[in-house]
Amino acid sequence: MKFYTLLLFFLIPLIGISQTRLSGSPGGENAEDASKEEDTIKPPISAYKIISVANDTTFVDTTLTIEKDYKFNYRRKDNFELLPFSNTGQTYNRLGMEFDAQKLYPEFGAQARHYNFLDVEDINYYHVPTPFTEAYFKTVPEQGQQLDVLFTMNTSERLNFSVAYKGVRALGRYQNILTSTGIFRFGLTYKTLDRKYHLRTHFVSHDLLNQENGGFSDLARQQYIDKEEEFEDRSLLEMKFENAESTLYGKRFYLDHYYQVAAPDSLSSNALKVGHIFNHDYKKFDFIQTNAANDIFGPSFQRANLRDRVRLTEFYNEGYVEWSNKTLGEVKAKAAVKNFEYGYKTFYIRENDTINNKLTGVNYSVGGEYRKRIGGFDVQADAMLNLAGDFTGSYFAAEAGYSLDKENRLQFGFNQNSHMPNYNFLLYQSNYINYNWQNDFDNVNTQSIYGELRSKKLLNIEGRLTQIQNYTYFTENEDTLVKPFQAGDQVRYLKLKASKKFDFGVFAIDNTLMYQNVLDGASVLNLPEFVTRNTIYYKDEWFDKALYLQTGFTFKYFTKYNMNAYDPVLAEFYVQNSAELGNYPVVDFFFNGKVDQTRIFFKLEHLNSLIDKNNNFVAPDYPYTDFLVRFGVVWNFFL
């Protein structure tokens, strides 16, 4: 099925090429000349628009920059604050923290598997003058490949659709770490002839499978640390088990549509629109372990063919009215209702209590948004409150931006958030007896204040101070088994990040440095104090400007810290304070080129491990990736 889906993506552009143009003479002696003249008129690249869910609009970018190199990975995002596991499609350990400013409800568990899960804000919409295709390809460790193909076209000026598929299959170098990713997405935008009714919608389906091995056995860990030559073939290193896999499934249908009741014109600056948002989410997480259970997770109800399965179904409806005026700004009032059902098909009856099978309920929320330019400041605010229902929660976010001049911009803001911990903190069931709980935790309360300066001549710098009450986390109990906990004391976290690029003609240096300090609660929030990435590279045009290339070295380093450990049963990271890891450099060599609309990427990853070998970790008992040769392309087609 996946093969036919991919084949369809490559056939659609060919179908578009074969279509007959409707303009020009239908025959006669001037028909051929008219066709040639039309072929020379190509839309500008800025006409190929990419529109986010927040209505921020950019256009297709076919340039080659150092930022494109940072994003040429499985997530297709910059991984500066993440530490990837050894195989493509596995999870990431965190080198920095981000706290959602506008979180109102609990989220599904298995958060370690959500790094490649596409949320509503990750889906883009398009408006293109001609059919457009983007194809991404990159090699993986050992056998397999990764591919991401997008095709979009406007059948008319008012109707656009897009279809895309992301597929990954990677064997990896260690035992039982095969990964398989399949993400299908479809999007559509439409507006009526009078431009009063606007609609955009998308459907996404996820199937993210990872084999799980629990990390090194005690003996293999020591063999890896000692760099024993016979185990340079990583498949010989023994893992804790080789009979488990976990899969995260997800389907979402999203609809956002509105009707423009009154549009601004030359006589009036008032505008009014009424809209509705519908979002249906379904998620399922499976942990399967055949043959035999493993004692590292404690006793189990059955010794073979274990299967844990949890589901979440959510229906979200939001109605809103938005009124705008040049003098007063944009005001939006909104009200929402969310139905949820999370849980299992079984009850767990213990001696003193019973663990229920489900959490079900409904929440009713109200809120508003405001935007206005006031005296040179771009001001915006967003607030929401759970007015009634099964969960309490609220958020308030306010931000202001000011452009000092064309090259310097200042941004600062404050946000407050209160929400219930994620569902798997509240209720969990498993064949492993230890992984069964039902908790009555308090809301997690978060306050942040932040500021950012973006300057082309000076540097980009941002800072954030976050304070958290009732911080929830997983860690080991007195029996060294993983359990959820809620911190009694507050957690305070300071984060400073600066970046600057120096350009010396055909040479350039790009630097990013992050400093972090957990002022309070360092025993429950572990992060490295410093993280740095420095890239020095050569860039120039060759072969009479037919090829633009960038080649150089990237150096990344982070200080030693109590790195979070990974739990495959939960697909979550948990706090550990017994092993300090890190304090190792990683050097990559890259040679990237651009020919027409194609960007070609060639990389030697972890080059320094050829000199000193590799015995570094991304989590306790999980190895950092060895030296790898990687190759890939991003190819754009404009028809």
What does this protein structure show overall?
With 639 residues, this protein is mainly beta. The protein has one domain (61-638): Beta Barrel (Maltoporin, Chain A), CATH 2.40.170.20. 7% of the residues lie in helices and 53% in strands. It has 6 helices and 37 strands. It has a 22-stranded antiparallel β-barrel. A 3-stranded antiparallel sheet has the order 2-1-5, with no helix packed on it. The longest helix is centred in the first third of the chain and has 17 residues, at 2-18. It is globular and about 75 Å long. The two termini are 27 Å apart. 28% of the residues are buried. InterPro entries: Porin_10 (IPR025631).
Short account of what is shown:
It is built from six helices and 37 strands. It has 639 residues and is mainly beta.
Biggest sheet character: 22 strands, antiparallel, barrel
- Relevant CATH superfamily: TonB-dependent receptor, beta-barrel domain
Which CATH architecture is right?
Beta Barrel
How many distinct domains? Answer: 1
Large-scale geometry: globular
The residue-averaged pLDDT reads 91
Alpha-carbon distance between the two ends: 27 Å
> What percentage of the residues does DSSP assign to strands (E)?
over 45%
Could you name the CATH class? Mainly Beta
Content-based structural category? mainly beta
Tally of DSSP helical segments: 6
Helix proportion: under 10%
Poorly predicted residue ranges: 1-38
CA-atom Rg in angstroms: 26 Å
Number of strands: 37
As for the CATH topology, it is Maltoporin, Chain A
